[in-house]
Write a structure and sequence with these properties.
Elements lengths: L9 E2 H9 L3 E6 L36 H13 L6 E6 L9 H12 L4 E8 L6 H10 L4 E9 L3 H6 L6 H11 L5 E8 L6 H11 L6 E6 L2 E2 L3 H8 L9 H14 L5 E4 L9 E3 L7 H15 L9
Parallel strand pairs: 1-9, 2-3, 3-4, 4-5, 5-6, 6-7, 7-9
Antiparallel strand pairs: 8-10
The protein binds iron/sulfur cluster (SF4).
Iron/sulfur cluster binds next to loops.
Length: 310
């Protein structure tokens, strides 16, 4: 078991420090693109758990230019930490879903900011083209480029039930198209989707380990206001088996033990604003508190990342 820092897994902040040699902060940028799962191209109504405003920071408003949003984000964070560089994080909605020239112009505007050293781009697996990837490949020769796909589940039954409107095969194909181009490739999974057994959820660790990913974010399923799931949990509560915090800690430690040893773990939980969150309510536990509990439990169990990776 050899991991940098004092963790039993590869953690994101250690990776960032060793990659850049200094503190690096992501600044969320909202470029106001839509999503093919909302505008009717792929589906309508969006994914059943999605209420975009529950994960868009306040400083990030689409009517402002990329530069304005970066300036506001930097002035917000620079009061906390004096010296650091920034990654422009295109997080909300589907950030590759528009005319190619428009997409390129936003990315170029971001990297042209003197304090920005790279981009983190969140998108759907079915929304990347070879033209866009070639453009980003050129940018990756100069800047750090991370491409994050919303995988959410490795099971088609869950992708269908949550109205994702793409298959797991499309996820595999997106990574095939993107690998070897100098990107840091990320994946995002939601743990606790209805219809999945705990064993199936653990098996996501086995499946995503087969993808050419560098980093992984896990989020526990949260039911937030304004979503289809907010209605489902009232109408058919039995379809949900939400995690309690203690059970989720146990789950995460088991998940880590099955994961390929080189994958960097970026997050274990999501934190929707309390006024948006319906369930589960974990008493407002913060990410760093949850991480400390996972670290402690890993030690108690003598587990580490990849201990049971096959
Ligand atoms: S989660 Fe992403 S893909 Fe799904 S509806 Fe929301 S923005 Fe669109």
């Amino acid at each position: 078991m050899k991991f940098k820092g004092d963790k039993r897994y590869n953690n994101y902040s250690t990776y960032i420090k060793s990659t850049f040699g200094e503190r690096v902060q992501k600044i969320s940028i909202n470029i106001g693109f839509s999503c093919p799962n909302r505008d009717g191209t792929k589906g309508v109504g969006g994914c059943t758990y999605c209420n975009i405003s529950s994960y868009t920071p306040l400083y990030c408003k689409p009517k402002r230019s990329v530069t304005q949003q970066l300036e506001e984000g930097i002035s917000f964070f620079s009061t906390k930490y004096k010296s650091q560089k920034y990654l422009a994080y295109f997080q909300s909605y589907t950030n590759t879903y528009a005319e190619l020239d428009l997409v390129k112009s936003f990315y170029l505007e971001a990297v042209n900011h003197p304090d920005v050293i790279g981009l983190v781009i969140g998108t759907r697996p079915d929304c990347v083209s070879l033209e866009l990837l070639s453009f980003l490949e050129d940018l990756a020769k100069i800047y750090y480029i991370s491409l994050e796909f919303g995988v959410e589940s490795t099971l088609d039954k869950s992708l269908i039930a949550t109205n994702r409107c793409h298959s797991y095969q499309e996820t595999i194909d997106a990574y095939k198209m993107s690998k070897g181009r100098g990107f840091a490739l990320g994946a995002h999974l939601i743990i606790g989707l209805p219809g999945e057994t705990r064993e199936e959820m653990l098996n996501h660790a086995v499946e995503v380990s087969k993808l050419p990913i560098n980093m992984l974010k896990l989020h526990q399923l949260q039911i937030v206001k304004g979503t289809k799931m907010a209605k489902q949990i009232v109408e058919t509560p039995d379809m949900f088996e939400l995690f309690e915090a203690e059970e989720y800690i146990e789950f995460v430690t088991n998940f880590i033990s099955l994961l390929r040893p080189d994958i960097i773990l970026e997050r274990f939980i999501s934190e929707s604003p309390p006024n948006m969150l319906i369930a589960p309510k974990w008493g407002g536990i913060k990410n760093f508190e949850f991480v400390a509990k996972v670290d402690k439990r890993l030690k108690e169990k003598d587990f580490w990342q990849g201990k049971y990776f096959n």
